[in-house]
Amino acid sequence: MDQKIAVAKTDSFTNYPQQPHGGKLVDRVLRGKEREEELIRAKELPTIMVDLEAVITLEMIATGVLSPNEGFMNEADYKSVLYEGRLKNGVVWPVPLSFAPIGNRNKEVVASLSVGDEVALADETKEPVAILKIEDLFSYNKEERAAQLFGTTDRNHPGVDSIFRRMGDVALGGPITLLRRVDWGPFEKIRLEPKDTWRIFYEEKKFRSVGGFITGANPLHRGHEYIHKNALETVDGLLVQPLVEMAKREYTRNEFRMLSYRSVLDTYYPKERVSLAPLRVTYIFAGPRETVLHALIMKNFGCTHALIGRDHAGVGDYYDKYASHSIFDQFSPEELGINIQLYHEVFYCTRCSNHATEKTCSHDDRFRLKISGTGIREMLRHGVMPPKEVVRPESSRIAMQGIQPKGLDEDQRSISPVGKTIKSMFPFYLEATRLGGTYRRENLTTEELTMRDLEAATMDVRLNADRIYQDIYEEYTYIGDANRDIQRQWVTEAREALRQQQEMVVEDLEEKVKQAPETASDEFLYQDKEESQRELEVAQKILEDIPPALRADKIEYRVWNPLPYNRYRGSDEPEEK
């Protein structure tokens, strides 16, 4: 039996500022009586068991997240995507969407199938989740897939490892229909599917533009916030989608990460313009290719702009940190159909007193606090809340509860060396004696750093991060304020006292020089004239170095006007005496 294909018509999006990728928003979720009938029929079909990752992928296809794909790829589309980054019809698609069951029982079922057959896909409960209609069966080369998709065949790469660990030898291609949607547990109440976001953005809120932001395993930090708020200056709305479900165990637990997002968004963002929704996807670990996939997913959720940071979807050191930017050079804006907004690495500059990137800040690492997702996680793991300039306390306090594992093992070791954490967050510490301070005579190495160094760097930042610019500002205002009533009088009084005291020193030394002999009778008890003169010169230089004390009568010269004051008010009449 042919399942009905539920696809939103292209013309239904005519009045929207965006279109689904490929021109149609796929909906292959069976409902009502038809679903009940197909659930019964599915139990009579050959059955292939699938894991959680496959269940998530099935749901993504059926709900339109991966539009225009209606199922798993046939061999022609598979090879075209693998080598060209496009479907056979030319539509941009960066990663193969394929299904190759593994396991002895599944292999037996696959061996019995032919083109035109249908097969039920069941989860760990052994209940059908979806039905797949077979349009193609084909073998593929795993090493070829790894080399083309990931640029490496190294089994240490998680994507490569997944191919050999999770995929069988024969791929099944064809459309799917979803029989049963998975309950998302604590995320169900804030779950949004593409059909929901299109309605919210363009029918309810009447937006004309929406920025999409997909983020991985980290709690919301100030780098994210910098990107979000820059975008909100130019777009009507923002859709924030943290990836959930498939994060590694040593990351922050998904529930706590989502709650950290909610806390910051509720406190610091314009609520009516921002939507938060979990995105339940499978990690592909494809680096730059996965970045393109995320942009197309944002498009299918109705976003007109994709916000892409540095090293988006990065995998260790396998890809250049800006490969997620340069890959978009391969596609024209027209064929992508979504405005790609690229952002460089964000850090906090204590000298600028704001968040910045290399494109906007000229100061060196002595003044910078880096925003490293890994560093943030490791600080939380050690029970230390990162500086407020890196992570809002509303975010880090909740995220700390969800980090696993916590602390050190029985050998006092952490998952990541503490020196690596310090370098990723506080680069100044290795080169400078303190934040914004002088350079060390010899740089520290990450290997010699300990937990005490992390504590010292953290305390330095907590005490001084917001003082650096404040101190500079106070110096400028002390010299610059013509109205001395708003200046700190104790500074003026301290400077006057300094000068008076040093003038007293100079005066006494001048008398000493007059009386000093040319040659001292005892070099350990008395000073000769030459030594006394040297002391005097040093004291005079110190007097010159003392900054001036500024009072109103000393800076009257700054207030002058070339015309009588009444002329500035527009009067031509002589000013009355």
UniProtKB/TrEMBL annotation:
Pfam families found in the cross-reference section: ATP-sulfurylase, PUA_2
Domain ATP-sulfurylase PUA-like: 19-180
Pathway(s) it belongs to: Sulfur metabolism; hydrogen sulfide biosynthesis; sulfite from sulfate: step 1/3
InterPro entries: ATP-Sase_PUA-like_dom (IPR025980), PUA-like_sf (IPR015947), Rossmann-like_a/b/a_fold (IPR014729), Sulfurylase_cat_dom (IPR024951)
Domain of life of the native organism: Bacteria
Sulphate adenylyltransferase catalytic domain location: 189-399
PANTHER family to which the protein is assigned, alphabetical: PTHR43509, SULFATE ADENYLYLTRANSFERASE
Name of the protein in its database record: Sulfate adenylyltransferase
Organism for this UniProt entry: Siminovitchia terrae
Organism taxonomic ancestry: Bacteria, Bacillati, Bacillota, Bacilli, Bacillales
